[in-house]
Amino acid sequence: MPTQIHFLIAVSVWSWLRHLGGVGLVLLALADNSVVPLPGSMDVLTILLAAHQRHLWWYYAFMATVGAVIGGYITYGLARKGGKEAFERKLSKRRAGKVFKRFERWGFFAVAVPALLPPPFPIVPFLLAAGAMQYSRKNFVAALALGRGVRFTIVAGLGAIYGRHIVRFFSQYYKPALFTLIGLGVIGGIASLLQYYRYKNRAAMA
User: Fold this and answer.
1) Residue 108 DSSP label
2) Which of 122, 129, 44, 47 is nearest to 83 (CA)?
3) Which of 132, 9, 151, 135 is nearest to 67 (CA)?
4) pTM (predicted TM-score)
5) For the segment 33-90, what is each residue's pLDDT rounded down to a tens digit?
6) Rounded to 5 degrees, what are φ and ψ at 7?
């Protein structure tokens, strides 16, 4: 019974976001680029919206990018306030050190490339690293906008070109696809909560 209720809630939320169109993409992006990511959800919604209104594919690509940049900037800002120490407590010094080395080596592309790559490649650690290292705000926004802009332009374009086939597929496998998205979201949420409690315990022991 609880599973059925959760599914109905998820369907209602998903339908509401689709009804909102571009605004729904922005709202979903705020969650997807936070510390509780929803892997694949942005791509799916962008494709479906572009498939239903092919002539507006560029608009949905733009709105998805805007939402991703706003959400990413919020995560970046929170990490910027916490600094390197908070980031190290969150990931452990060893893992944080690896991310810092990659960021120091690649800089701009340490944000742009992860923003371009599809799930399940994680982008949140790089958003946090950029903030913790006090990376330039302008360069951060430019890198994130470039990576997400290219990605969602491709995704929305594919939705517009192969719209009928994509919509047909999702209409046939709607429940499994939605359950998969819900499952990924739950896994991401649990992982984030575990990291939060680990960080909280380390902060209390420090």
Assistant:
1) T
2) 129
3) 151
4) 0.73
5) 766 667 778 888 898 899 888 899 999 999 999 999 999 999 899 888 877 766 666 6
6) -65, -45
